[in-house]
Structure formats: C-alpha cells, structure tokens
Amino acid sequence: MKSLKKILLSLVIAASAGTFSAAALAETDPGRVTYKPEDAIDLVVGKIQLAIDGISKGAAGDEAAALIKSASDLSKEINANDKVDNARAKANRKLKSAATHAKESALQEAEQELRGAKEDFAKLKSLI
Fold it and tell me: Tell me: the pLDDT tens digits for 83-99?
C-alpha cells in the first residue's frame, strides 16, 4: 500500500511538471507574426486613423467597413493581461458599431465611433 501511494504521488508530480513545462515552452506557429502589446496597440490605432481618413476623404460605406474590419482583426493581437483584454473588448465593441454604421452608410456616426475607439485603444498602453 505504501509503495502504491508513492507511485501514484510520483505520477501526479510528473504529470503536473510536464504540464508546466509545456506551457512555459509554448511558441508561436512558424508562419505567424506576433507583436508586443505596445506595438499591436500602435498598429490598431494606425489602422483606425486610416479608416477615419478614408471616411473623411469620401470612401463608400463598404470600403470604410473593410478598413474598420482590418483594425478589428488586428486588435486580436493585443495580449497583455486581463485588464487590457477587458478594455480591448470594450473598445472593440465601438469598432463593431462603427462597422455597422459604415455598412448602413451612416458615415458620420461611424467616424464618431472610430474616434472614440481610437481614444480607447490609445488608453490601453497605460494598463500594460
């Protein structure tokens, strides 16, 4: 009985150590580009500014929605901690709202939502 307990305990310890090392050694896929959180935030803010500029230059609703979608897709690269992720999700809701407005050709509302999202994404740096 004593040896059975020792064997089970060693198996549990070995399994937990194996789990830890797998998480610690995790790497990205070979073809995937990863960004530091600060760089990802800057890229998203830049994409949002491109969308704002496109709307102000008279882009059509579908074109503006495509620009907003690229910013929304890039925002998924912002990985830092739970606070940043929650704030990113709130800011991303504004991007989705802006995309909806752009698809409906309500470009003024889309631009206002984009300006709010840009401010929210810029504030994420203080949470890192």
Answer: 989 999 999 999 999 99
